[in-house]
Specification:
CATH class: Alpha Beta
Strand order of the largest sheet: 3-4-5-6-7-9-8
Mean pLDDT: 92
Helix content: 25-40%
Largest sheet: 7 strands, mixed
Distance between the termini: 11 Å
Structural class: alpha+beta
Order of helices and strands: EEEHHHEEHHEHEHEE
CATH architecture: 3-Layer(aba) Sandwich
CATH superfamily: Gcn5-related N-acetyltransferase (GNAT)
Length: 228
Amino acid sequence: MYLKSANKTEPKEVSDIGFRPCRAQDVDTAVPLIYSSGPAAFDYVFCDGEKQQAQEFLRYAFVRGNSEFGYRQHIAAVIDDQVVAVGAVRRSNQNLPFTLSAFMDIVRFYSPFAAARTVARGLRTEMVISPPKAGIGVIYHLGVAESRRGQGIGRALIAELTENIQQQSLPVAALDVAETNPRAKELYLRLGFIAKRTKHSSLQSKFGRVTDHTYMEINFGNGNQLKL
């Protein structure tokens, strides 16, 4: 499989993609990619009074670095020194510290009443997109630059993240996919993820909504592997 090179005269192989931890200075590139992984849900949770609040909050939390939205949690896919995709993995022993860090980010970013409403929306969203359970590494915030989609970058990033999960001795890799994103769901099925359950959602505000999500996983403990 090939990626188009910048000058469009020679193919660039998927192997030319590099991976590295995100840095705070990646904020301008990384946050739009993170936001693209679920814009309607981000708008539901983090827009309290204005449409642009979701990305503004994500920028704030990304640079602070400590929560599930922070740069320390994310991996960047890089081609020619440019970030072309991002993703992250979280595990169950991070649930409490991430919750506390996100709470602190929220109360510092929003006014008191807006912070309370935002926290409430976030907790309701976790009823649809649940935090990971023990033994599971959850892949999340997968975003590929629009100009680079369909070139195998998402597949390569998922392979990198699942390898990270296995290196942590976690037997299961999992993710949640919106039912409004059938193309992504089809990719995950081809890679060997198995759909386990779909959670229905009626969560909606004037800014966004949380759609139905399907939880999918690969159980490495049962001898399953990613199908590349």
